[in-house]
Design goal:
15 helices; 2 strands; ABC transporter involved in vitamin B12 uptake, BtuC; single chain; mainly alpha; membrane
Length: 323
């Protein structure tokens, strides 16, 4: 402890896991602002922040399952199911917006609960379980909609998705509140600490009296809930409930937490670092759009960043073990 107190501000900053992300973000902002006059315009900042909103919640959804050493491959498929369910409730059945949103969140949490229960009851890894349920959720989605979107959504709901104050979209409020709630949950509550304990050392957690299976079910349920929240924001953002919502979420959901330092074996995640990783990803995507780079290169770059992050995390673990 005394050694940490003797460190300079710069040394303490560099010791943080998110310091490299913060430096990369600053470099990216300065570079793009220098190369493109359109980058710092109000409209472009608004576009980036709108993209940030949905991606952040999707990243949090995956982050919670990574915390217990699990993976949720159904995050996008479940999001798509919630999206068309909410759109159908509002267009076909005339549900009020708050009721449709609550039902959508319940469907997301229910899908996550199914993932968690199947994982602990069968003893099969969540990777396989969620791969199977992803197919089931997608099948239900396409069976209900026949790939036809819901367009006639309430004007107030669509207005929330497109509204803004200067460069700040209204959509930014829910992810900010979710990030604060998650940070508090993980740091200050017993279930949050149990979640990290199970991911860090499942056997030791069980010996300490922590219900391992219950914590895994909780992680998947919360993951499904957040996937549902992301889907609802995506519907508001697009102004329609598209069956294709969520199809491109999977890579992004892993990219941000892993770049943010999440341990694949579980036990270590960071809300702040994951949020910064999302900021970096959005900046990269926007920079490529402004540079008119083929969008397929974005996928390549995200894959490269994931590999680099995994390699760096492994190197840190080896050095820590050697110390």
């Amino acid at each position: 402890m005394s050694q940490n107190r003797n460190l300079t501000f710069g040394q303490r900053f560099l010791a943080n896991e998110w310091s490299a992300l913060a430096v990369a973000i600053v470099i990216g902002l300065v570079t793009l602002a220098t190369l493109s006059s359109a980058f710092l315009t109000e409209f472009n900042l608004y576009v980036m922040l709108r993209s940030f909103c949905v991606v952040l919640i999707v990243a949090f959804a995956q982050m919670l399952t990574l915390a217990v050493g699990q993976m949720n491959l159904s995050v996008g498929a479940l999001g798509g199911l919630v999206a068309i369910a909410v759109g159908g409730m509002m267009e076909k059945w005339g549900f009020p917006v708050p009721v449709a949103i609550l039902c959508g969140l319940a469907i997301g949490a229910g899908g996550g609960l199914i993932n968690g229960l199947l994982t602990v009851r069968t003893g099969i890894n969540g990777f396989i379980i969620t791969l199977a349920t992803a197919s089931a959720f997608t099948g239900i989605n396409l069976g209900i909609t026949e790939s036809i979107p819901f367009y006639n959504l309430p004007a107030s709901f669509v207005a929330f998705g497109t509204g803004r104050i200067s460069a700040l979209p209204y959509l930014l409020l829910p992810p900010v509140l979710i990030a604060i709630a998650l940070a508090f949950f993980l740091a200050r509550t017993v279930p949050g600490r149990q979640l990290l304990a199970v991911g860090g050392n499942p056997q030791a957690a069980e010996l300490s009296g922590i219900p391992r299976d219950g914590v895994i079910v909780m992680a998947h349920t919360l993951s499904g809930l957040l996937a549902g929240a992301a889907a609802i924001l995506a519907v508001a953002q697009l102004g329609s409930a598209q069956p294709s919502i969520g199809v491109d979420w999977l890579l992004m959901s892993f990219a941000a937490p892993i770049i943010g330092g999440a341990a694949l074996a579980g036990g270590h995640i960071s809300v702040a670092a994951t949020a910064l990783a999302v900021v970096l990803i959005v900046i990269i995507q926007n920079g490529m759009v402004l540079a008119k780079v083929d969008p397929y290169w974005v996928q390549f770059l995200l894959g490269a960043l994931i590999l680099a992050a995994v390699g760096l995390n492994r190197l840190r673990a080896v050095r820590a073990g050697g110390a």
